[in-house]
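Memo to structure team: turn this sequence into structure tokens by end of day. - J.P.
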Amino acid sequence: MNAVIFDLDGVICFTDQYHYLAWKEMADEIGVYFDETINNRLRGVSRMDSLNIILEKSDKAYTHEQKEALAAKKNAIYVKLLEQMSPADLSDEVKTTLDALRAKGLKLAIGSSSKNTKMILKQIGLGDYFDAISDGTNIVNSKPDPEVFLKAAEFLSEDPKDCLVVEDALAGIEAAVRGGFKSAGLGEAATHEKVTYPMETFRDLLRIV
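Reply from structure team:
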């Protein structure tokens, strides 16, 4: 194994609550019901796909332009909330494990559908840490399509079979499988029937690679 590609949210750090608060504020403004259960369906899903899931509860039809405006509004709220993040949002376990993987000579990359990936990494003190970043700014298809991971492998000049994908979402493991990657799953992702390595903690990576 030559490289490890990490999902960002739920793996390196946690921004779930900020996403929830931003979607909630947007939904409240247009009078659409939104709760934690619906929010759980949005994990690992692109912004526009997430909006379409939320709008299932609406009795109004929205044009593409109106949807773009709603998605932009949600993102503006979310980005404002992200300004609260700091290096304190990066756990010692994650940082020491990343450093140990790097010491083993592995290339490290991010594969995230988020268009705010670079901002989040900067906020938590990892702005220049990774060898490559593939995110929502360079892909067309979100997970479970493997595009974001395939691009990350390409940026690293590595074959997918020589890379390990680390995920916390079922859609992320599905994307890894479709792309020909080995996978390591945390949380819900550890229950995927095709995950290569189920994990209980982030530190478990050190016994895998």
